[in-house]
């Protein structure tokens, strides 16, 4: 593994989503067999859920979030409509009145979305170059109360002092959202390869 000339190498494991028993241990063993290592134990995202929720509470107090009652199917249907931006949340719940929110809350627990004030953001990826991607009102807390990946990864990178990130290139479309959230929170954005994989 290429290690930084100064500083440390860290690892974080996303275990806040559907994780099969033993998957984290197998992943770490696979990385070790490939000669990849890091300084200290990997950070489990689930170990910081209280901190993640506290940040959402601060954003909510500042008027930067709103409750969303849409199902994934409803969001996908709206995004695939002729006028919808592919993959974008259309803002269905953004401006609901109090009575409508109360009615929907009785039917379904809400997710919490960031109230974004931009539509896109450009990030520079070491391998992909400049990439301009969608920034919509993305989910911060899922409707089961657990932190969403984009929130957790931004906060955990900042917590670990991460300044360079290598992630799978399948996550490149999420990187503009993460960069935007970091800017909203006044956090430094990791540099150079926010989501690239070696060619």
UniProtKB/TrEMBL annotation:
GO terms (molecular function) for this protein are: ATP binding; glutamate-tRNA ligase activity
Alphabetical list of InterPro entries matching this protein: Glu/Gln-tRNA-synth_Ib_cat-dom, GluQ/Sye, Rossmann-like_a/b/a_fold
Looking at the record, which segments are called Disordered? 1-21
SUPFAM superfamilies this protein is in?
Answer: Nucleotidylyl transferase
Provide the Glutamyl/glutaminyl-tRNA synthetase class Ib catalytic domain boundaries: 15-190
- Which keywords does UniProt give here? Aminoacyl-tRNA synthetase, ATP-binding, Ligase, Nucleotide-binding, Protein biosynthesis
> Per the record's keyword annotation, is Oxidoreductase included, yes or no?
no
- GO CC annotations, alphabetized: cytosol
Give any single GO term for biological process.
glutamyl-tRNA aminoacylation
Family indicated by similarity = Belongs to the class-I aminoacyl-tRNA synthetase family.
Q: What protein name applies here?
A: Glutamyl/glutaminyl-tRNA synthetase class Ib catalytic domain-containing protein
Organism, by scientific name, is: Pleodorina starrii
């Amino acid at each position: 593994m290429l290690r930084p000339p100064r500083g440390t190498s860290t690892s974080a494991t996303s275990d806040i989503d559907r994780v099969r028993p033993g998957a984290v241990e197998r992943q770490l063993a696979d990385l070790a067999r490939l000669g990849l290592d890091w300084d200290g134990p990997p950070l489990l995202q689930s170990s910081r859920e209280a901190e993640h929720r506290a940040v959402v509470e601060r954003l909510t107090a500042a008027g930067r979030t709103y409750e969303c009652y849409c199902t994934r199917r409803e969001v996908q249907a709206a995004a695939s409509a002729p006028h919808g931006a592919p993959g974008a949340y259309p803002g269905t719940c953004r401006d609901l009145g109090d009575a409508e929110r109360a009615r929907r809350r009785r039917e379904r627990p809400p997710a919490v979305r960031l109230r974004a004030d931009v539509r896109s953001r450009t990030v520079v990826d070491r391998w992909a170059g400049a990439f301009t991607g969608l920034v919509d009102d993305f989910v911060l807390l899922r409707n089961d109360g657990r932190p969403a990946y984009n929130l957790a990864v931004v906060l955990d990178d900042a917590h670990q002092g991460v300044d360079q990130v290598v992630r799978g290139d399948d996550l490149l479309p999420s990187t503009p959202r993460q960069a935007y959230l970091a800017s909203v929170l006044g956090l430094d954005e990791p540099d150079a390869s926010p989501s690239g994989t070696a060619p």
